[in-house]
Amino acid sequence: MIYDQITDEPFIKEQEQIQEEDVTSKIHVVSRASIPTHSLTPSVRAFIGNETLERFIPTQHPFAIEWIDLLPGEDIVFSLDTKMAVLIVCQGNGRLTGEQPGIIQTGDTVVIPADCEFGCINASTYQLSMLKIIFEPNIYQLDDTVSLEQRITLQDILSYNQQRLEQHVQIPFFKLLEDGTLLDTRKRQIFISCLYVWSNCFQHLIFGRQATCIDKRYQSVFLQHFLEEIGHDKLLEEKQDIIEIKDSILSATAGWFVTRMFMLDNVGKAAIVHLVLETSGDEFHNRAKHVLSSDVSSKYFDLHADLDDGHAEMGMDLLKHQHPITYVRLRQLIEEAWDMFETMMDRIVYLVKHDIA
After folding, report:
1. pLDDT above 70 covers what percent of the chain?
2. Which of 7, 158, 193, 305 lies most in the core, judged by the most C-beta atoms within 10 Å?
3. pLDDT confidence of residue 66
4. CA-to-CA dists, residue 183 to 121, 241, 291, 301, angstroms
């Protein structure tokens, strides 16, 4: 975590305290710590990520401003493409790398032309802090279809997630718990065996997420979740003979979530697991207990009843204070995750109703 140089405090939850007001009507002091770091580049704090600064800067602004904080030995590479920029060294010394290497120090202003790729390394023993001003309209444009004006907030994502959950509990998978299909012993065995396939994949998922996380901001939450989930798949075997389900569609859709843990950044992993999987899991385990209690250990349901709601909530702090562009990406990601999860559930319904195992 990058800390503010003066207060040494972590992110100040200033964004949650700002009311809808005209920020140009009075003076505001915005600490560096209240500007969120970029999810993929923690050394960068874009001004537009702070609500006060974002509302103060004109909507059609032709520039973007970012803090760059490099710890001793840390480096960063910029590819400006067609963007001109100015780099102001506020504190510390460093070394420019790239087309025109050189030494920079406190008070220097580095003028960077367009189409110039360059970098900077902090070769000193203390923090190097710089202000980067980039000159070009729509500097945060993602692609031809997603622009700055279309960015969304965490609240937008949570609202969408709630909407998907309300639709989710109406799909055939949940109706299977109510329509009497699972009163048939054979179909109930296939259903539980399909759950075992998913539960086993979920174990691989949390192992993979934990093994690939070295960021301390995420490690403690991921580890707590990991420790609370270990071995839950084995509880499905205590009272039921599990049938080996060999189905490529079920395996592919369940396995998709495992592969995301090796492809996404930590905030993306948190969004999939805590917004989608644990939210769905909480609904399922509460609804399935009375239907499957004769064939599945009560400990399985009791554990999930106690933990799933908390598991959905435990990732919330990890999703706060992200860059606006990160939220656009997360919104697209959770939509894809909901679609994939429901495809997997639809396949389970098909296997059960057609007695395929």
Report:
1. 76
2. 193
3. 85
4. 66, 17, 8, 19
